[in-house]
């Protein structure tokens, strides 16, 4: 009940003279956001420093910030490790930001983009581009973005019945995701062994496969879309209360939902284009922040948690596993356990629909 009241307050205009600083919930949310940002930064520095050649954290920072010139350190940090580290940071932030947008819009923690078919659509079109047209680089990235948009539009249209309801949207999304996965399996079965191997490598998802163009595109998209996503926080607070309450508070429900869906498609499509469909990051970030914050949490904190998940998974994949594996293997194993825990929690609380 207290969470609902807090959500209603966040959806309403601030009262004159209201002392936001002394609100313990807001202080806790800010503390979680700052802590998540510092953890992501620490993992970013660790990613740049750990490997066959160890570089101390202060040397990493000095090299990245161009504070001094040490040729060997600069080569290892800037040339060899920085692209993958920035990719992990950016991809994780995009996925972490997109997850709670959908989960709060549909008022269900299971409504992550990779559960309702958006990532599967991107994977299908990218795999098709690689196998059927022997494409690479930007063409594959563009195909992934188109696939994410088309699969989302398909789910949205099929779920529409005088508006969108969360449970129906999730069920149809799961069905579309299964359909897309079956088509991916069919395409792989018809491909040559070399094409199938290349497509499978991409479909597992790894931060090490992003090219400079895909990475620059993702960073620019984040710089443009993130402020717009943060502006949607108030609409999300209203939508969590239900359509009638949101309308009574002066919100236009369907235009708000459409704006949120467009933001999620761009974030997930560009992140998938850069690193492949790294699974469960979008699903985990929002609930982790909500548990730490004691409320729905902030979108910015979810983005930082997503960055931390991807960077941490990449460190485990490269330096903890007996043999190096793709980043998506680690997030897949951890995410499957997290999904089971989430399903049990949702079932106990009766929020599964």
From TrEMBL:
<feature type="transmembrane region" description="Helical">
    <location>
        <begin position="170"/>
        <end position="193"/>
    </location>
</feature>
<keyword id="KW-0813">Transport</keyword>
<feature type="transmembrane region" description="Helical">
    <location>
        <begin position="82"/>
        <end position="102"/>
    </location>
</feature>
<keyword id="KW-0472">Membrane</keyword>
<feature type="transmembrane region" description="Helical">
    <location>
        <begin position="114"/>
        <end position="133"/>
    </location>
</feature>
<comment type="similarity">
    <text>Belongs to the binding-protein-dependent transport system permease family. FecCD subfamily.</text>
</comment>
<feature type="region of interest" description="Disordered">
    <location>
        <begin position="1"/>
        <end position="26"/>
    </location>
</feature>
<feature type="transmembrane region" description="Helical">
    <location>
        <begin position="325"/>
        <end position="344"/>
    </location>
</feature>
<feature type="transmembrane region" description="Helical">
    <location>
        <begin position="297"/>
        <end position="318"/>
    </location>
</feature>
<feature type="transmembrane region" description="Helical">
    <location>
        <begin position="258"/>
        <end position="285"/>
    </location>
</feature>
<dbReference type="InterPro" id="IPR000522">
    <property type="entry name" value="ABC_transptr_permease_BtuC"/>
</dbReference>
<dbReference type="Pfam" id="PF01032">
    <property type="entry name" value="FecCD"/>
</dbReference>
<feature type="transmembrane region" description="Helical">
    <location>
        <begin position="139"/>
        <end position="158"/>
    </location>
</feature>
<keyword id="KW-0812">Transmembrane</keyword>
<dbReference type="InterPro" id="IPR037294">
    <property type="entry name" value="ABC_BtuC-like"/>
</dbReference>
<feature type="transmembrane region" description="Helical">
    <location>
        <begin position="31"/>
        <end position="56"/>
    </location>
</feature>
<keyword id="KW-1133">Transmembrane helix</keyword>
<protein>
    <submittedName>
        <fullName>FecCD family ABC transporter permease</fullName>
    </submittedName>
</protein>
<keyword id="KW-1003">Cell membrane</keyword>
